[in-house]
Structures are given as C-alpha cells and as structure tokens.
Amino acid sequence: MKRIYVVEDEENIRELIKVALQGFGYLVEAFETAEEGLCAMRKIKPSLMVFDWMLPGMSGVDAIREIRKSTAFKRMPILLLTAKDKEIDKVIGLDNGADDYMTKPFGVLELCARIRSLLRRMEEEHIVEEKTFGTIRLCPSTREIFKKEEKMELTFKEYELLLYLIEHETKVVTREELLTQIWGYGYTGESRTLDIHIRTLRQKIGEENQMFIKTVRGVGYRFVNE
Ligand code: CA
Question: What is the pLDDT of residue 185?
C-alpha cells in the first residue's frame, strides 16, 4: 500500500485531503508542521508528500528545499499547496523542487487525480524506489549501496545478486534461478560461484544485516525484511 504524508496546518483541509486519499486506498498520515512531516519522513519514507506552502515554523517550500538536499529523497514526488496564485509563486515552488502545484481553493478530487498521476509517472519512468534493510540502503537508480550511510563497494555480480533477492522478497529463490538470472542462460560454470558470491556479500553487508539473507538448505536463498 502506498504511503502518503500530508503537511497542512489548516485542520479542515488536512482532514479533507486525508479522508479523500484514504478513499483511494492510500495509507495517509497528516501533520500540522513541516518539522513533524520531515521527522516522520526520515523514519519511514513515504511514496509521496503533500506540503502546504504557508505553515507555522518552517514553510513548505523550505521543507521541500531541505528534502531535495538528500539523495535518498531527491526523487520522491512532492505536491505543493498554496493560497498564492501568482505565476511567480508557481515558479518559486517548482524551482525549489516541488513536482506539482495546486492553488487554493482546489477540488479535492483534482488533487487526488494529480497525486495518482505523479505516482504513475514515477512508476512509468522506472524510477525504482530505494530499498532499505537493517543498516543498508540501496539506490537502484544510481546502483549505489550504503551501510550506515557510508558508501560500500560491491562487485557487479554481488550487487545484482542482492537486488534480485530483495526484489523477490520473502520468496525462496532457487540456486538454478540465481545462476540463470545473474550469470546468464548459458552459464555452465560450477554453482560454487554462487556460494562464494553469497559469502562475500554477507561479509560486506556485515554481521548486523546477515539475518536478512537466509539460506534455504538444498534449495537456494530467501530475503526476509521484517
Ligand atoms: Ca497554511
């Protein structure tokens, strides 16, 4: 289920947006201030955020600027709400990293449609969301991987192996499947290659993250993130 955070200080608008989005099946959390929204975002990353521009404390535009500084949140879709309706305000909002913009008063159904379109555009562009487990953060769009926010070096195959396991989370992936998918259909080498790669991968992700990659004896491996 897609998670959306809404930051809006006007209670009636906040509730209206929340209820409408819940009606479309999104998991919605709403906040009064940008500070609370940013705090929640850092704990669990949402698929999309909605910010009102004028907020007590940090403004919506300042919050968006802050969010865009971090690579982890660069591509998260953000929609900006505002009572300002001058062309220049729209430009300021978009220049500071908002993906879309709506002027108050707005129709809540149009807002939901814009949100669906932002989420769809993100999927169509194949902007794969980053994956996190334990102290590891993997960014498929840049092929980067971080342990405790420190960049790690994985070989091409180690990276492919880890990503494949994550993408098939909770499923048992057989040795044959991995050899075929990662080493190619014509792979005729010995299957110890796989064991060696799994071993070095486990060493690199560290002891604190070992429990995520489980060995299913005699069959293959399973990635479990719970
Ligand atoms: Ca406001």
Answer: 59
pLDDT per position as a tens digit, 51-97: 999 999 999 999 999 998 887 787 889 999 998 877 778 888 888 88
* Domains of the chain, first to last: 3-123 (3.40.50.2300), 131-223 (1.10.10.10)
- The values of phi and psi at residue 222, to 5°, are -145, 130
**Best CA proximity match to 13, nearest among 56, 50, 43, 57:** 50
Instruction: Tell me the CA–centroid distance for residue 10 and ligand 1, in Å.
Output: 6
Angstrom distances, CA of residue 136 to CA of 40, 52, 116, 133, 208:
19, 32, 29, 5, 10
Distance CA 115, CA 104 (A): 16
Name the more confident of 88 and 15.
15
Q: From ligand 1's centre to the CA of 120, what distance in Å? A: 27
Q: How far is the CA of 187 from the centre of ligand 1 (A)?
A: 60
Distance 69 CA to ligand 1 centre (A): 23
The pTM score is 0.60
The alpha carbon of 105 and the centre of ligand 1 are apart by a number of angstroms equal to 12
> Is 90 exposed, middle or buried, given 0-12, 13-18 or 19+ CB atoms closer than 10 A?
middle
Q: Which residues pair with 133 in a beta bridge?
A: 136
